[in-house]
Amino acid sequence: MTIKSRAVVIPRRNVVELRTVQVNEPRAGDVLIRTAYTSISAGTERMLLDGRLPQPQLLFPVVPGYETVGQVIQVGKKAPKELLGQWVYVGGARCFQGVNPAWGGQSEFISAEAERVVSLGTINPATGVILALAATALHGINMANIRHADRVLVLGQGIVGQVAARLAKLAGASYVAVADRVAVRLEKSKADQVIDVNRESLDEAISDGNINLLIEATGSMTALSGALPLLANHGRVLLLGYYDTLNLPYAPLFMREAQLLIAREWQFGPDGDLPRARDMIASGDLDVSGLLTHHVPLDRIQAAYRLAFEDPACLKVVVEWPKDNVEC
């Protein structure tokens, strides 16, 4: 038996469609999730649409997405029964017939291993779509090992940069500055210093330099290269974006004996970054209010992708899925 499911499908480069796909029935250790909210990763999914991601993600046709929130409507025989009815986050799935997952989250129904879902607890379900990027930022901040005297500069104030700046301050950094070219993003920033690089250069804004941790969250090697002279001796550079190639001047890194840190994604497990990010949001320690800037219904999915990719005021778009009856 399979389940008919509406899904966002990318059949070829630069084409987004809504299709009906076949989802496998949940196995003994799986749960079946009815999707209520998804989001679009403006960085990763842009590269997917452009055909710039490596295999195996780029085996068209694909179901994109790894930011899915829904309710568990069925549990397998060996899955925890208490998950039934819970609101959960899941980072995609490999449950489809005839289409490939990249990463499989933009689907009306998802069958996934029970250990891969994260219960949302008390946080608002729609807010759950932010967990993936919040957990990625948290993983990077943990790697950076922030000390209380550290001065931190975050390049880019998209979702990852916004959350990274907040987490750096929570981790004890003495000073956190953020920089971006988009004024509406900077209006939402929480930092000791907010720099609009259209109005002043980083050198002018941070004249004394001595940045102990430089966090790159723009995806731009050019932006990072221009900020390297601000590093203190033995400074660290944390890469939170995704890049086609690394192209950096070696001299400023060499002269400062800088460390280059690369954060891939969140750490998995019951004590991993996803539940930790959830708990920080639930407690109010990590304030993400105002970061979900746009809501779009599923039937306007092409408009949602244009919004995420083209509107600099869009930090995070929430795609709202309809609530029809299950069709098996």
Features:
Quinone Oxidoreductase, Chain A, domain 1, 328 residues, 6-stranded parallel beta sheet, 2 domains, alpha/beta, Rossmann fold, 18 strands
Account of the protein in words:
Helix 2 crosses helix 3 (159-170). With 328 residues, the protein is of the alpha/beta class. Strands 3, 5, 6, 9, 10, 17 and 18 form a 7-stranded mixed β-sheet that branches. A 6-stranded parallel β-sheet has the order 13-12-11-14-15-16, sandwiched between helices. Strands 1-2-7 form a 3-stranded antiparallel β-sheet, with no helix packed on it. It is globular. Strand 12 (175-180), helix 4 and strand 13 form a beta-alpha-beta unit. The chain folds into 2 domains: 2-119 and 293-320, Quinone Oxidoreductase, Chain A, domain 1, CATH 3.90.180.10; 133-262, NAD(P)-binding Rossmann-like Domain (Rossmann fold, 3-Layer(aba) Sandwich), CATH 3.40.50. It has helices spanning 44-49, 131-144, 159-170, 183-186, 202-205, 221-227, 250-255, 273-283, 301-310, and strands at residues 2-9, 17-24, 30-39, 62-64, 68-75, 87-90, 96-97, 100-102, 109-113, 118-119, 151-155, 175-180, 193-196, 211-216, 231-239, 259-262, 294-297, 317-320. It is built from 9 helices and 18 strands. It is 23% helix and 29% strand.
Determine the structural class based on helices, strands and strand pairing. alpha/beta
Strand content: 25-35%
The overall pLDDT average reads 95
Number of domains: 2
Q: What integer value in Å does the Rg equal? A: 20 Å
What string gives the helices and strands in order?
EEEHEEEEEEEHEHEHEHEHEHEHEHE
Distance between the termini: 8 Å
CATH topology of the largest domain: Quinone Oxidoreductase, Chain A, domain 1
Principal-axes shape call: globular
